[in-house]
Design brief:
With 63 residues, the chain is of the alpha+beta class. It has 1 helix and 3 strands. The chain binds zinc ion.
Length: 63
Amino acid sequence: MSRDPEPGDWICSPCGEQCGRAPTDHHICTWHIGTCSYCGTKDLPVTAPRDFGYPRIPERADK
Ligand SMILES: [Zn+2]
């Protein structure tokens, strides 16, 4: 049923900037290549949502 990871596992930079707050200049995020839980894009740099203050996942068109 659920092929995708749990919502909110990882977030990409564009989603973080849109949905959350930008990390501080001195904050080093741990990025890796994965799937963004927010926009669903695969194979792009993602990091933990906490680096953006745990933004909410936007409503998706398909359910
Ligand atoms: Zn994203």
